[in-house]
Amino acid sequence: ALRSRTLSTQHGAEALRVVDPTGTHASELLSDIAMSGINALILGETGVGKEMLAETLHRLSRRSGAFVCVNCAAIAPALIESELFGHERGAFTGATQGRVGLLEAADGGTVFLDEVGELPLEAQPKLLRAIERREVMRVGAVRPVALDVRFIAATNRDLSSEIAAREF
Q1: Cβ proximity of 113 and 154 under 8 Å
Q2: Is 154 exposed, middle or buried (0-12, 13-18, 19+ CB in 10 A)?
Q3: C-alpha angle with apex 67: 122 to 81, nearest 5 degrees?
Q4: What is the model's pLDDT at position 98?
């Protein structure tokens, strides 16, 4: 049977924790989450289908834009800002033209931040700002670009412990 419970967070918001999504009400629960438009964090061990769940949430949502998967563990640390947020022409050596970042490329859709626990500490504040304000500042830009995206993140790491240890 599907077992779930509602938990209160530090900021008074509520989070839904699904312990066993194999019950008969799983599709109804996924549909409700998908249609709500809330951001989501999927926790689970490697190989349990976190990306498949994120894609399902996107497909069931009302979002008409793309599903953009960002493998946070695979982006070289020196390229993270440019890859996620984009850059303006001339922002750095070799930037001969402007480039839209992965977050902006998902406008109208969903950004899936796979292995978000692997994201370097230095990039996390800028990503948090993008999530909270729904805007990105391209490298070298003077004005932010508005986003219409839903964020779904996934990790196999214990983020609570890492936050307490100031590692996330």
Answers
A1: yes
A2: buried
A3: 20
A4: 77
pLDDT band per the 50, 70, 90 thresholds, residue 1: very low
What does the block give as tokens for 141? Answer: 């830009």
Q: Which amino acid is at 16?
A: L
- Within 8 A by CB and 6+ apart from 95, the residues are 87, 88, 89, 139, 140
Contact 86, 48 (CB under 8 A): no
Length of the chain: 168
Tokens standing for 157? 């790491």
In whole angstroms, give the CA distance from residue 15 to residue 36. Answer: 13
Q: Would you call 164 helix, strand, or coil by DSSP? A: helix
Angle at 64 between CA 38 and CA 34, to 5 degrees: 30
